[in-house]
Amino acid sequence: MLKKILNSGTCAECRLCCVFDRYDVWETPVFTEKIRDIILDSKPGTEFVSKDGGYIFKVGNLSDDGLFSCPALTETGCMLGDEKPFDCRIWPYRIMEINGRRAITIASICEELYNRPLSQLVEFLKDGLADEIFSYADSHPEIVKPYYDSYPVLLFEKKPL
Ligand code: SF4
């Protein structure tokens, strides 16, 4: 979905958004049942927790500096290919709820996009991506995260929830 502004080769080399620490647990992707089953076929021991109609993978106890990877991450990248969860297809854009209104924010950890001019990031949203994100969230509200204050807000939805 971000092919126009984000080079897939850059993502393949980075993979930062597929590795988490204990403070990022809220940021792990939300899987549909179909995606959960694809992962289970390949990694039967993976444990999931249901979340508002979707699934997130279960994270065990972690030390302060412990890291954990998404179970879909393999040596050669994400095993899901074009079936990646919506969360991952729009990364580093995020959809969050702020005081009863949905907004699209951006994660600063993705240097590739975060260092672009703000106008370019917003323009891309206005070019159809924002509508696509809000529309998907209408049918999959589990992808909407509570607002996290280090995430700059790029665009508010016009209508309140
Ligand atoms: S589903 Fe794929 S792209 Fe998303 S966090 Fe996991 S490995 Fe990364």
Question: How would you describe the overall organization of this protein?
Answer:
The protein has 161 residues and is an alpha+beta fold. It folds into two domains: 73 residues, no CATH class; 68 residues, no CATH class. It is built from five helices and ten strands, in the order H-E-H-E-E-E-E-E-H-E-E-H-H-E-E. The strands form four sheets. It has a four-stranded mixed β-sheet. Strands 1-4 form a two-stranded antiparallel ribbon. Strand 7 and strand 8 form a beta hairpin. The longest helix is centred in the last third of the chain and has 22 residues. It is globular and about 45 Å long. The chain starts with 7 loop residues before the first helix and ends in a 5-residue tail after the last strand. The site of iron/sulfur cluster has 11 residues, from loops.
